[in-house]
Amino acid sequence: MSSEQKEHIETCKSCQAFRSEEKQLSQMISGLPKVGAPKDFEFGFRSKLAESSPKVMLTPVWQTLRYALPLTAAVLIFGFVIANSSLFSVDERTPKLADSKSFSPTDETSPIPELKDSAPQVDLIADKSVEPKVEEAPKVSEKPQVDEKIQPKKEIAESKLPIKNKGKKDEILSRDIKPESDSQPKILNRDSAATEGKPINPKGIQPDKPIVNPRVNETAKTFTAKEVLAQLGISTSGGNGRLRVTNVGNNSAGFYSGVKTGDLVTAIDGEKLSGKPLSVRSIKGGTLTVIRQSKQITITIKNR
Amino acid sequence: MALDKFGNSGAGGLYKPVSFEELSDHEIIEATKAGDENAFGEIINRYKQPLTNYIFRMLNDYEEAVDLAQESFVRVYFAIDRYHSKYAFSTYIYRIATNLAISEIRKRKRRRLLSLTGLYQYDGDEEKEFQPPDENPLPEDDVIGIEKRQVIEKAIVALPEKYRVPIVLREIEEKTYEEIADILELGLGTTKSRISRGRGLLRKKMRRYFDR
């Protein structure tokens, strides 16, 4: 105890009482009789020693193994789990899909890493092949993306626009076909499926070249009635299944076939005009059904 | 003075005409490691009394105290190769004895809990009053003194184990704070704090026996 503590104890009664109790307690405890070991203590110890299994006495090697074996097992299990999880990770699978030759990027010169980057989007690209068709279709209607099945109906709906908006009709009709537009392939005809952006092309198909239907001699394209007549040098106006001849080019096929200005064309090759793209590939050698002076006349187109 | 041999000295121990009493604990342990089993007898001689007393004060059960003291020596013997001389041997063996005593205390606590549930038929005679055959003569027939002794013994056993152990080591075994901290693997401050708290609890129970 320090001198300050001693001085304090001399003056503080509670601390004096506390110190006194502490002293008495220590004396009580230390005054407890000490217990000794029995005389046969060593005998008991030897008995216990003999009873104890020799395995208790571990060799240094086993002592090390006792700790090393569980640790090694834990490390192996952990490594096995990680290895398995990495083998079956989705990320490793996707590059395989990207490497498949069935899918090619829009840029033929693009290296494989680009494929890998876009690999996860393969399905999206497939879907996007439909989207461009839709994106252009709703220019007038301004509708969102439409499925393949819906688009044909759309075209029908658009063709039913009132005649009042003649200008718009022309736009619709002219919009239907864009011969060189890869962004709007005709859905009904798979062979003409050409897309812009990053389309998916079937095997052996080059994106820049038009798709040729082996069943058809000519390039697979669809034409409107106006375009078909224009091939013959016949300019027309109108719609909704009727086109009135406004001009016949001199020395054109239409001229030599006997088409006259004012004729009302109602059918081409027997196919009535309806505003839809015709199934006619070429009018050469075909027939025109016209109405002249309230009489229906069938004109055979003559090649020049 | 050498004890009887513990069977064959299969480890190739050498009998040296040296009094082990003159050797330190570390030297005796080194001799035991070298294969001299007689050396370990000296260790038992030195520590059997204090260990038995220490464990008895912890459990208040003489037979169990002897049993656990013997067990402590068995464990020391089998782990003699792992003993490192950086610790004092007394710290080492007291630590083993403390752990065994604490295990026994907890086992008894569980038994008492089970007896309350009726699952275990706790025999209340297990902890019977023991009159140790100590060599020191008891004080004069002082009823109050005997009563005081019994009360303090029960009060020590009733302490929670984290206070009981340092109190017994400090007050009965007369260990220093540093030695107690090493045995219990605690900090010095924690050791002192627990001893102080233990004393406070004992003081409350023994208040009526204090002279004022």
Structural class of chain B: mainly alpha
Major pleated sheet of chain B = none
How many DSSP helices of chain B? 8
Strand segment count of chain A: 6
Terminus-to-terminus distance of chain A: 134 Å
Q: Give helix and strand order of chain B, one letter per element, not per position.
A: HHHHHHHH
Give the overall average pLDDT of chain B.
81
- Evaluate the radius of gyration of chain A: 48 Å
What's this model, at a glance?
The complex is a heterodimer of chains A (304) and B (212). Chain A is α+β, with helices and mostly antiparallel strands and 304 residues long. Chain A is built from twelve helices and six strands.
Topology:
The complex is a heterodimer of chains A (304) and B (212).
Chain A: H1 3-11, H2 13-30, H3 41-51, H4 60-87, H5 90-99, H6 112-118, H7 122-128, H8 131-136, H9 150-159, H10 166-176, H11 225-231, E1 234-239, E2 242-248, H12 253-257, E3 264-268, E4 271-272, E5 287-292, E6 295-300
Antiparallel strand pairs in A: 1-2, 2-3, 3-4, 3-5, 5-6
Helix pairs in contact in A: 1-2, 5-6
Chain B: H1 25-34, H2 37-59, H3 62-78, H4 89-117, H5 143-158, H6 161-172, H7 177-184, H8 188-205
How does this structure look, described?
The complex is a heterodimer of chains A (304) and B (212). With 304 residues, chain A is α+β, with helices and mostly antiparallel strands. Helix content of chain A is 42%, strand content 11%. The model of chain A is unreliable at 107-139, 146-159, 165-182 and 184-196 (pLDDT under 50). Chain B has 212 residues and is an all-alpha fold. Chain B has 8 helices and no strands. Chain B has helices spanning 25-34, 37-59, 62-78, 89-117, 143-158, 161-172, 177-184, 188-205. The longest helix of chain B has 29 residues, at 89-117. Chain B is elongated and about 55 Å long. In chain B, 30% of the residues are buried.
